[in-house]
Amino acid sequence: MAFEGLTEKLAETFRRLRGKGRLTEKDVREAMREVRLALLEADVGYQTVKEFIANVTERAVGSDVLASLTPAQQVVKIVNEELTKLMGGSGARLSMASSGPTVVMMVGLQGAGKTTTTAKLGGLMRRQYQKRPLLAACDVYRPAAIEQLQVVGSQMDLPVFQEGQGDPVRIARNALRYAQDHGNDMVFLDTAGRLHVDESLMNELRRMKEAVNPQEILLVVDAMTGQDAVNAASAFDQALGIDGVVLTKLDGDARGGAALSIRSATGKPIKFVGTGEKLDMIEPFYPDRMASRILGMGDMLSLIEKAEAAFDQKEAAKLEEKLRKDRFTLQDYCDQLRQMQNMGDLSQIAAMLPGQLGRQIRDANIDQRQFARQEAIILSMTPLERENPQILNASRKRRVAAGCGMEVSEVNRLLKNYEMLRQITRQFTGKGGRMKGMGGGGRAMGGMGGRMHGFGRKKRLK
């Protein structure tokens, strides 16, 4: 994940600060020197780093910090606040049209993931905001661009408007008219990109902007290109006037400097970030949550939102009832494995957990393919066996193992994991009451409740 190196370096710097009983101005300035180097190594722009360090230092050497009983914590608090301010302060939303369809122009260079991001955003708008988006294929130059948009659109079950290799401006105009006639309240225009910023590209985008008067122009940039992403954002903003940025591939081996530099370089907010290849892996960008992640404090709000989106409320209520009555079966265990997978990659979940807990999950080398293996074992059982695991004797286990192509030892390991999870959940259930400390019972249990056994070192999630 992006920022991993930066997070580790900042954690080490603040750990040394906490080791001091009281801080002097010299201590603060030495720590800020380390922070400056960490930010530069993360590919944050020099001018951005210079201004950031100056702001933090000015606040951190104040008498209210140096005289504080917990000065190290005060410094971390200041860094957190300044990081949040650097990335925009608060989350920025899309502007919606007061009447008629909201038009969003997606612009950017080739290779940034613009076409896929267009479909991802359309899916997010429908999923979270109950919108009825239309995707419009306005990239008539790149080979197979139209076909690609149709494929990802069909995967997201979103309508795609296309008129082949025609005039992109006319296609955009016709797409807007089509949306008005067919009840689509949002139109996402997938425009052409180039390998570099050129005048012909900008002229075409300017003509399209004049023709459809979009509420939003979103620039899609690749986080892995570092300062090149910042330069592209500046160029597009000067030539076209963008309203915000979508940062893609933030899950890759990116140092993350683009996320910290774009706002200060362009004055335009990052509105969304792509967090993986799957079409549902896009989320709104919240500067305060990202600052907390960078400082190793986790992002529990985003984690809760992921869990709520992945776990069905009615099923969670049923599961809670089963747990209270100690009727948790292997079929329930299988359902929970599936819903955990819906939450996304475990490395992303680990990034949202604070401090040592997140590092424990990252260091556990959890192989997510094991989820599928455990599911295969359970599906090889009969319904009776799933509901009554105690009847699984030696001969039944051999049959189950043969049915899923695994060893009996793996069947035994699954049963041990299941039994341990049952024992752990009993600790959280009160007599006749709701699950204690679980914040809603089954949903939280499925996402974060037991131990991750059989996936490397054993780690208990508390």
What is the oligomer described by this structure?
single chain
- The structural class is alpha/beta
Helix-strand sequence: HHHHHEHEHEHEHEHEHEEHHHHHHHHHHH
State the end-to-end CA separation.
23 Å
What does this structure look like?
This protein has 462 residues and is of the alpha/beta class. 57% of the residues lie in helices and 8% in strands. The protein has 22 helices and eight strands. The longest helix is centred in the last third of the chain and has 20 residues, at 408-427. The two termini are 23 Å apart. 42% of the residues are buried.
Task: Give a quick summary of the entry.
The chain is an alpha/beta fold. Helix content is 57%, strand content 8%. The longest helix has 20 residues, at 408-427.
Helices and strands in order, then pairings?
Layout lengths: L3 H15 L6 H17 L4 H15 L2 H4 L4 H16 L15 E6 L6 H16 L3 E5 L7 H11 L4 E2 L6 H15 L3 E5 L8 H14 L3 E7 L4 H14 L3 E5 L8 H10 L3 E5 L7 E3 L2 H8 L5 H11 L2 H12 L5 H13 L3 H7 L2 H9 L5 H11 L3 H5 L6 H11 L3 H20 L14 H8 L13
Parallel strand pairs: 1-4, 1-5, 2-3, 2-4, 5-6, 6-7
Antiparallel strand pairs: 7-8
Helix pairs in contact: 1-2, 2-3, 3-5, 5-12, 6-7, 8-9, 10-11, 15-18, 16-17, 18-20, 20-21
